[in-house]
Amino acid sequence: MHRRDRDREDRHVGDLGMIVHPEFRGCGLGTQRRAQAISTSDGKFEVLRLVVWGRNVRAQRPYKKFGFISAGRLPRAFGRGEEPDPPAGPS
Questions:
Q1: 58: alpha, beta or left? (left if phi > 0; alpha if psi -120 to 50)
Q2: Predicted model pTM
Q3: Residue 89 has what pLDDT?
Q4: 27-83 pLDDT, tens digit each
Q5: In the chain, what are the domain boundaries?
Q6: pLDDT higher than 50, residue 91
Q7: Cα–Cα dist 40/8, whole Å
Q8: SS in 3 state form for 8-59?
Q9: Whole-angstrom distance, CA of residue 16 vs CA of residue 1
Q10: pLDDT 10s digits, 13-41
């Protein structure tokens, strides 16, 4: 969990990021850590923000399970030495 500068206009927004090593995917570790992060942030932020690659449906499912909704797209915002995420239609 990360809080930006207290003087920023978006200081009420917490940034949530998580990566689960491939060896530990599918055993519930991500769900436990996600629940802990959300619980820890309770009362500290009005909004939790995260970024998930549009094509990474596997990563999106658990966030939807926790009640996260898609609030927008950042077409071509990220790339890892490969083609960035293509623009997607509304979700």
A1: alpha
A2: 0.61
A3: 47
A4: 988 889 889 988 988 888 888 888 887 778 888 888 888 888 888 887 767 666 656
A5: 2-65
A6: no
A7: 22
A8: CCCCCEEECCCCCCHHHCCCCHHHHHHHHHHHHHCCCCCEEECCCCCCCHHH
A9: 5
A10: 888 888 889 998 889 888 898 899 889 88
Q: Which of 53, 47, 62 is nearest to 13 (CA)?
A: 47
What are the backbone dihedrals phi and psi of residue 13, each rounded to the nearest 5 degrees, phi first? -105, 130
Residue type, 47: V
Amino acid at 81: G
The dihedral built from the CA positions of residue 4, 50, 17 and 54, taken in this order, carries a sign that is negative
Neighbour count for residue 28 (Cβ, 10 Å): 9
CA of residue 66 relative to chain centroid, distance? 11
At 43, list the tokens: 């009362």
Using left for φ > 0, alpha for ψ between -120 and 50, and beta otherwise, residue 63 falls in: alpha
Beta strands 47-49 and 13-15 are: parallel
